Amino acid sequence: MFLASSAKSIDSNLSSLAAQIEQQNPGLSVLVARQLRFAIRQTPLEVTVSEPREFNVLEEFILRAGVEFEPAPTLQELADLLGLDLVFVKTAAANLVGLEVLEVADNGKIAIAPSGQDFCEKGTVSRSHVQSIYAISDPLNQTLTFKFDAVAAESSDLPDLAELVSLEHQITDFADLSIAEIQPLIQASGLGIHVPENGKIVSKCDVIGDDLDVLQTVSIFVLLDGIENKTTIQARQGKQILETASNFLNQLESQQKLLNELCKSTEEIAQPESETIPVQKTRKKSSTAAGRKKKP
Asked: Domains of the chain, with CATH numbers?
């Protein structure tokens, strides 16, 4: 039989989850359940995103007129031809000038810009806009991800995991990364701003502020497998198991030190529990063997 919860080192706000883990996994006993803090590094960025845009009907007409009319018409002539107020034609033309597809002389005469020939043939133009995002370096989960919104800080009153294990950020100086290295990381983060197959490209990335360490909370569980007679460490955020973080903590050469720091009495708890389980297994096997001998 496993020891009672009162004999273990379990934070009060994790007791329900610890009981649930044991209930769902009869072979496991939660020896330690502690909440600790660790810091992720947050870097504010501005990225330039280029994406295709189709011309609207009026823009397309103006461009066709610039290509096909001889001599090239003025904006007033186009407005008269279409029966539109000049202000609508000027607005559409200004959009095309801003996209570097069209040129408009002082007298209002239009001409296709040298860089606009290809766009006219394709019927689309590449437009750019600036987007603010954040790079998040997580040393515990060993990830570098990107988010639109800043990550909120959590409790600072908890013990610091970094005092028990060495946590190193995957990226120490984000400004040293090339755009070719940044693009696949942004794409993998699922923000939808770098999707080359759809023509959306992050073409530039600038750091616009200082790195900021943001405290996060992680729950560390020490589990005793009664069948394997083995102790493992499991990291969670909420009910989600952090596989990479768990593997990292279990692979540390200083694991025994980590166990001792998490709970000074871990060895005292694990010893009697690990001794009781093999006895139970031995008794079951003896009983089965005795039953077989009685059979004819």
From this structure: 5-45+130-268 (no CATH), 56-122 (1.10.10.10)
